[in-house]
Each structure stands twice: as C-alpha cells, then as structure tokens.
# Entry
Amino acid sequence: MCVKNILRFFKTWRYWDACIAFLRDKSLGISFWQRFALLKDLYSITFAFDDIPHYQRQILDFVKAILRAPRDKPGVVIEAGCFRGVSTAKFSLAAKLAAKQLVVLDSFQGIPPNKEKHEIYSKSVTFDEGDYAASLDEVKKNISDYGDIDSCRFVAGWFDDTLPDFTDPVAVVYLDVDLVSSTTTCLKYLWPLLEPGGVVMSQDGHLTRIKELFNDENFWRDEIGCEAPVVTYIRATQLLSVRKPV
# Structure
C-alpha cells in the first residue's frame, strides 16, 4: 500500500464505528464473512480513485438499505446521479448479494441547465451546466473494473425525459442529483413505484433547499399525491431518508 493510500486509509477509517456496526449487523441477510469481504471491497474502490464526492458512511447506509430490501418481492435498486460510477461500483456489489438489479439513471452529460442557487451551511453555491459530467463508457469501465457490471442497467438521459416511461417496481432509491428540479422529478415519478416499506435516500441533505423540499408538506400533497413521510436527517452522513408507509 503506497503512502497516499496509507494516509487515505487512516482518514477513511475515522468511520471505524460505522464499519464495526456494519460487520456486526446480522439483519442484512448475508454472513459475517460476506459483510467483511464487501467492506474490504468498498475500501479498495475508495483507494482506487481520487476526489470521491461521497463519504463511506453514506455508502454503508445505502448498502444496508439494499441488503435489507425483501428478496421475495419485486423491486429494483435505483441510483439517480452517478458521476464517474464510483458509488455505482460499490452499490453494484451489494445489489449482487441482494439478487437485485441496480438501475443507473444519469444524463451522462453532467448537471442540466438551471438557474438554481443553493446554500451549504450558509455558504452560497451553484451547480453549473455540465458539472459532474462523465461518459457512459467511463462509468461502465469503472464498474467493470471494480464492481459487478452484470447487476447494472443504464438509463441515459435527462430525468424529465426518461422517468415518465419508467415503470419497474422499486425497492430502494439513492439520489445524488444536487438540484431541486431534479430531486422533484425523481420523487414525482419514483415514489409511486416504490414498494411499501421502501426507502429513498438523498445524498444532498447538506443543501438547504433540498432539505426544505423533503420537509414541504404541500409538495408531497400537491406534487406526489400523498401525505408527507417522516424525514430522517442523518447528520453524520448528510443523508436525508424517507420510508414509504407499509
């Protein structure tokens, strides 16, 4: 292990408590050694890339949601917004263990045109057109090299164009889309497809406007057609989580 990876190892293992909890979690439907091997693979992927825009805690939380999804019921795993496919590679390994298909939704052109302004901890930020762009070929290569490409299906295009025709039952959803408009579109079309008890997690919980959207009762009633679900904010991971009532 090179010096750079040794330093990254100690930096990422500040999440040791989450890792230990993951190893001890018998509710995930896989053996201790499968959990150990998966955790090792997640860190191997982390060490293979620089400037990863996620925390390992975030990945572990969604991996647990994938593994806990009922295996005797239909439902795909959704990742909306994949950038270079690093998180996708990690999720694909969990999807394989859970015998689920991972459906990857992305424009593969980066952030769409928008005029949105956001705040992260009271600091202004914008997401410009083309930010976080990676080609489908690059994403597929990264997953082939580090994940399980056979567990994946790719839906390329803007969410407004692809999601109206998406009809698969959904088990769990991971959103990393940055914009209110993109989050709105994903929730509008994916929530009705979500199986009862299914979970939606958003990696954008550090964005004030995204938190406001998830907590907006009028949005859930008028746009989604249901009562607002209970929103859980996992501050340690900046994840927002909502569960569909059973």
Remarks:
- The mean pLDDT is 91.
- Residues 119 and 125 are 6 Å apart (CA to CA).
- DSSP finds ten helices and nine strands in the chain.
- The chain has one domain: 54-243.
